[in-house]
Amino acid sequence: MNEKMRVAIGSLRGATEEDLLFAKQLGVEGIVLNTPPFRGEASFGSGALGGTYWVPEGAGGSASRWDTFELVQERRRIEDYGLRLEALENVPIWFYDKAMLGLPGRDEQIENYRETIRAVGRAGIPILGYHWMPTRVWRTSKTTEIRGQARCSSFDLALVADAPPMFGREYSDDDMWANYRYFIEAVLPVAEEAGVRLALHPDDPPVPSLGGVARIFRNIEGVRRALEIGDSPNHTLDFCMGTWSESGVDAMMTALREFGERGKIDFIHFRNIKGTVPKFRECFLDEGDVDLVAVLRELVRVKFDGFLIDDHVPRMVNDSVWGHRSRAYATGYIAGLIRAVTETEL
Ligand SMILES: [Mn+2]
């Protein structure tokens, strides 16, 4: 790595010209795409000389993996604006849901995931983020009122503790570990060959189980074990400061110290929260439980050389659906923090 700690714009699905100009105007150097809606191999047919050719949209089925050509196009388009495509976060969940649940068809999904990793590598994109939450991120409200009538999301376990199984039965810790081992052992060697780092996002919220599916990356023991099973320089972390802090600020700082010292953190979802499981809410960066300056000092101490991105942000007055106002505030705040701790004597 050996880069400088830096800020990027996250939570973009695609990158329109407006998105790229917005990123440039905020002065960041890079962006991250999260679950970009690439059309994948469905858009291509086999060429006579072993290449691929474009098939009109709608001619194929729905994509089950990504294609090199499309990824290269996207990266080059971003670079045309003087920006870097830092990472892709998350393939669509239907690319590997059977793998997560150990269902019939998982081998085909895993083969496609391996092809996707190869495509990401060939396209010169260094990081593919992933998570292990078939039941996804859970919140119990997206309209919790915070300061100045801004709105944020919140979680109260009491409201969902009795939620029925989402996939017909209960999946235990042991089930999810067995499925995880099967998956990561199949894909990590391909990531090594392809020069791609797979960055794990922890389970949000970090509770034992939701919707009948155990959440095995809910604490430091689980994430340590992920890095033991998948022991490779190409296996890293998307350190979600918000998710870790949902277990308490001390738990977050302990994980930050440990994984930071080990050089395992590729990037950080830089968001703050108030409260801990079983009940917490999101908030503006400057009003949460986390001491942001302490986090930045720790990142300097462990010589963190990745990037920080905004994550979920509160909904501000007259904001866009994506949250331009709130994201501009968060990104400027992060950039200021980085400058303050890296360019001054503390
Ligand atoms: Mn996150």
Description of the molecule:
The protein is of the alpha/beta class and 346 residues long. The protein has a single domain, classed as TIM Barrel (Alpha-Beta Barrel), CATH 3.20.20. It is 36% helix and 20% strand. The strands form four sheets. An eight-stranded parallel β-barrel has the order 1-2-5-6-9-12-13-16, surrounded by five helices. Helix 2 (68-79) packs parallel to helix 4. The two termini are 25 Å apart. The relative contact order is 0.13. Mean pLDDT is 92; it is low at 42-61. Bound molecules: manganese (II) ion. Residues 201, 204, 240, 242-243, 269, 311 line the site of manganese (II) ion.
Task: Give short descriptive properties of this protein.
346 residues; alpha/beta; TIM Barrel; eight-stranded parallel barrel; four-stranded antiparallel beta sheet; 10 helices; 16 strands; 36% helix; binds manganese (II) ion
Outline the secondary-structure elements.
Elements: E1 6-12, H1 17-26, E2 30-34, E3 44-46, E4 52-54, H2 68-79, E5 84-89, H3 97-101, H4 106-122, E6 127-130, E7 141-145, E8 151-156, H5 173-194, E9 197-200, E10 209-210, E11 213-214, H6 220-229, E12 235-240, H7 241-245, H8 249-261, E13 265-269, E14 273-276, E15 279-282, H9 292-301, E16 307-309, H10 324-342
Parallel strand pairs: 1-2, 1-16, 2-5, 5-6, 6-9, 9-12, 12-13, 13-16
Antiparallel strand pairs: 3-4, 7-8, 8-15, 10-11, 14-15
Helix pairs in contact: 2-4, 4-5, 9-10
The structure holds manganese (II) ion (MN).
Manganese (II) ion binds at residues 201, 204, 240, 242-243, 269, 311.
